[in-house]
Design brief:
- The protein has 125 residues and is mainly beta.
- It is built from no helices and eleven strands.
- Strands 2, 4, 5, 6, 9, 10 and 11 form a seven-stranded mixed sheet that branches. The protein has a four-stranded antiparallel sheet with strand order 1-3-8-7, with no helix packed on it.
- The N and C termini lie far apart (40 Å).
C-alpha cells in the first residue's frame, strides 16, 4: 500500500504563486511515476503534470506549460508542483497520484493506482 499526503493549497490572488507538495509513504520503490491532476467544480478531472521517479522526465498539460514546474526529491519520496502566474481558471482541487506500471502516456489518469486526498487551490481575480 502507498499513502499520498498533499499540502500547500490555499487562497491566492491572480498572479501569485503556490508550491504544492506530495509525500509518499509505504512501498515507494515499486513506483514508476508521480502525477498531478486537478478537478474544478462540475468539471472533469484533468491532467496537469507528471514526472518519472528514476529519470526525472516530465510532461505538462498545455494549459500550464511555462507556468508550472514539477520536480521530485527521491530521497524524501516527495513530489512538488511549483505554480506561478496563477489564474482564476487554475482554481480546483489538486490531486497527487502514483503510477506503478510502465509506459510513456503519463497523462492517462486511469493508469494511476494511488491517489491523495486532494488540496484546494483557489485563485481570485
Amino acid at each position: 500500500q502507498v499513502q499520498l499526503v498533499e499540502s500547500g493549497g490555499g487562497l491566492v490572488q491572480a498572479g501569485d504563486s503556490l508550491r504544492l507538495s506530495c509525500t509518499a509513504s509505504g512501498r515507494t520503490f515499486s513506483g514508476y511515476a508521480m502525477g498531478w491532476f486537478r478537478q474544478a467544480p462540475e468539471k472533469e478531472r484533468e491532467f496537469v503534470a507528471a514526472i518519472k521517479w528514476n529519470s526525472g522526465s516530465t510532461l505538462y498539460a498545455d494549459s500550464v506549460k511555462g507556468r508550472f514546474a514539477i520536480s521530485r526529491d527521491n530521497a524524501k519520496n516527495t513530489v512538488y508542483l511549483q505554480m506561478n502566474s496563477l489564474k482564476p481558471e487554475d482554481t480546483a482541487v489538486y490531486y497527487c497520484a502514483r503510477r506503478s506500471d510502465g509506459g510513456s502516456l503519463l497523462y492517462i489518469a486511469e493508469r494511476y493506482d494511488y491517489w491523495g486526498q486532494g488540496t484546494q487551490v483557489t485563485v481570485s481575480s
